[in-house]
Specification:
Elements lengths: L1 E5 L3 H12 L3 E5 L3 H8 L10 H10 L3 E4 L2 H7 L2 E4 L14 H13 L4 E5 L7 H15 L6 E5 L9 H6 L4 E4 L3 H11 L9 E4 L1 H32 L3 H9 L20 H14 L5 H14 L1 H10 L6 E5 L14 H11 L3 E5 L4 H8 L5 E3 L3 H5 L4 E4 L11 H7 L4 E4 L6 H6 L3 E3 L8
Parallel strand pairs: 1-2, 1-4, 2-3, 4-5, 5-6, 7-8, 9-10, 9-12, 10-11, 12-13, 13-14
Helix pairs in contact: 1-3, 4-5, 5-6, 9-11, 9-12, 11-12
The protein binds nicotinamide-adenine-dinucleotide and uridine-5'-diphosphate-glucose.
EC number: 1.1.1.22
Family: Belongs to the UDP-glucose/GDP-mannose dehydrogenase family.
Catalytic activity: UDP-alpha-D-glucose + 2 NAD(+) + H2O = UDP-alpha-D-glucuronate + 2 NADH + 3 H(+)
């Protein structure tokens, strides 16, 4: 099939590359000429495991191309995906300007039947707005062309995006139109071999399913983070509690890790947007208000602990391992590391940080500053620092040389925002250790 994908970010590019890899001819359209030039030169503008080889293979095979020419994009695809950003506005609602701009572009250029698919995460009612925007453009051209608007939210996780797309748990297709559903089933057939993963439903249910999934996962994390703080007070260990409850199949082990708070481009924004949707319909989502508040509190937790331990961070240097909001990505959107670093700087402290892939993205955000040094190894971050904080659970941090860390730090202490180590082992190596929700020793 001929497919067009508007938006060449994490979702658009992964969607495009995976659809091309099973034989479709996919054209990616983006408004960012630099991004398109990078892609045309065979490079991915961000770090995502497995994407580079897909891009190169499918571009060479003539199944994947990139353009800023929207008219060409509209002409190309029988199915057109909208995979542009939906960032939060001041009031927490999702900003639909990019989605609706693409809808208008499609209306301005289409000349035959199209299935228009919202892949961006959009609030209930957006497919109807896309339909209206498109209809208005067609009316202005005095054309009555057929089209269907389908909701097809994406559930991939950064760092595992290609794998998630290739082997989806489910493929949600929101439509009330049999012809559009049939096209979507054809498109997803190659990802659907062992059992039917396509779940057809009405459009509002599809749109709400996406927010419900993210809000449920964020709720589990905030619940575990609050429980971790309680565990410390009562002398329990959150890791034991996690194993104890996760073994109940009604609860399960996924997304039960206490830590430095959830970040990324999705959970914080989507929880906010769902709260906002609730407000618009007179339905207060009290659980989600609490989930958000608990997360804000949790993101400050490492700073509170470090300040309490040192007395003050003024004039101190904190070594930081991990910058990205999670491992295997260079994405810094809403990363807990940012909250920690900004709090340290505001209090007059300095940061020496290392991350295996996110240092370039971080440098672009913060630029040159006297109180910030990016270094090229975990050990170098500790050189001359007072204490070490860990914010991202990169594999490279999982088995460090504690004796070496002790020798490098002025006040040997580890504040572990991801519970990577056995507290007893770190303390036996002569370092002060604080995880999140770990039993206090001695
Ligand atoms: N990142 C994720 O893990 C993830 C997962 C599932 C769903 N989502 C949702 O998918 C959507 C996209 O997220 P993302 O992380 O890929 O965003 P992103 O910011 O990485 O990429 C968005 C791209 O859209 C482009 N764009 C903006 N306006 C355009 C237009 N008119 N025409 C063509 N391109 C345009 C931008 O230049 C940018 O390259 C969001 O709604 C997000 O919530 C994201
Ligand atoms: O037990 C856990 C699991 C995750 N996190 C944190 O939660 C955040 C989000 O992690 P993750 O969900 O793995 O990453 P995303 O790439 O943001 O993916 C989420 O958001 C996407 C965008 O909507 C969805 O498509 C995915 O299904 C959903 O998992 C990160 O800061 C993690 O550190 C925890 O603190 N504890």
């Amino acid at each position: 099939m001929n497919i067009t994908v508007f938006g060449s970010g994490y979702v658009g590019l992964v969607t495009a590359a995976c659809l091309a890899d099973v034989g479709n001819r996919v054209l990616c359209v983006d408004v960012d000429p630099e991004k398109i030039a990078t892609l045309k030169a065979g490079h991915c503008p961000f770090y995502e495991p497995g994407i580079d080889s897909l891009l190169v293979r499918n571009a060479k095979g003539g199944r994947l191309d990139f353009t800023t020419d929207a008219a060409r994009g509209v002409a190309h695809g029988e199915i057109i995906f909208i995979a542009v950003g939906t960032p939060p506005q001041e009031d927490g609602s999702a900003d639909l300007q990019y989605v609706l701009a693409v809808a208008r572009t499609i209306g301005q250029h289409m000349a035959d039947y199209k299935v228009v698919c919202t892949k961006s995460t959009v609030p209930v009612g957006t497919a109807a707005k896309v339909r209206e925007a498109l209809a208005a453009e067609l009316a202005a051209r005095r054309l009555a062309l057929p089209y269907d608007v389908v909701s097809n939210p994406e559930f991939l996780k950064e760092g595992a995006a290609v794998e998630d797309f290739m082997r989806p748990d489910r493929i949600i297709v929101g439509t009330d139109n049999a012809r559009a559903l049939d096209k979507m089933r054809q498109l997803y057939a190659p990802f659907n071999r062992n059992h039917d993963r396509v779940m057809a439903m009405d459009v509002p249910s599809a749109e709400l399913t996406k927010y419900a999934a993210n809000a449920m996962l964020a709720t589990r994390i905030s619940f575990m983070n609050e429980l971790a703080l309680l565990a410390e007070q009562v002398g329990a260990d959150i890791e034991s509690v996690r194993r104890g409850i996760g073994s109940d199949p009604r609860i399960g082990f996924h997304f039960l890790y206490a830590g430095a708070g959830y970040g990324g481009s999705c959970f914080p924004k989507d929880v906010k947007a769902l709260i906002r949707t609730g407000g618009e319909h007179g339905q207060s989502l009290q659980v989600l208000h609490a989930v958000e508040a608990a997360n804000e509190h949790q993101k400050q937790e490492l700073f509170r602990r470090i300040s309490a331990y040192l007395g003050s961070v003024k004039g101190r240097t904190i070594a930081l391992w991990g910058l990205a909001f999670k491992p295997n990505t260079d994405d810094m959107r809403e990363a807990p590391s940012r909250v920690l670093m900004e709090a340290i700087w505001a209090a007059g402290g300095k940061v020496r940080a290392f991350d295996p892939v996110a240092m370039e993205t971080t440098a672009k955000i913060y630029g040159e500053r006297a109180d910030f040094t990016l270094v090229d190894s975990p050990e170098a971050a500790c050189e001359g620092a007072d204490v070490l904080a860990i914010v991202t659970e990169w594999s490279a941090f999982k088995a460090p040389d504690f004796a070496r860390i002790k020798a490098l730090l002025k006040t040997p202490a580890i504040f572990d925002g991801r519970n990577l180590y056995d507290p007893a082992a770190v303390q036996a190596a002569g370092l002060h250790y604080q995880g999140i929700g770990r039993a206090r020793l001695g």
